[in-house]
Specification:
59 residues; alpha+beta; two-stranded antiparallel sheet; 1 helix; 25% helix; elongated
């Protein structure tokens, strides 16, 4: 995966998460974003922790 454009990967993963979470209410509890400059280039890290609850069924 390192050879793939990061914007393409983020878009694909975002669409997968959107489908996965459609039946849940999700609240982000923790968010991490970091940028590190290395001799190979710039390394970016994204991380999120969320609480998922099944959506209440409508009557």
């Amino acid at each position: 995966m390192p050879e793939k454009d990061v914007t393409v990967v983020l878009n694909e993963k975002g669409q997968e998460l959107k489908k996965l979470f459609k039946d849940f209410d999700a609240n982000i509890e923790q968010w991490k974003f970091s940028v590190e400059e290395t001799k190979e280039g710039i390394r970016v890290e994204f991380a999120a922790k969320a609480l998922l609850k099944k959506k209440a069924e409508k009557e």
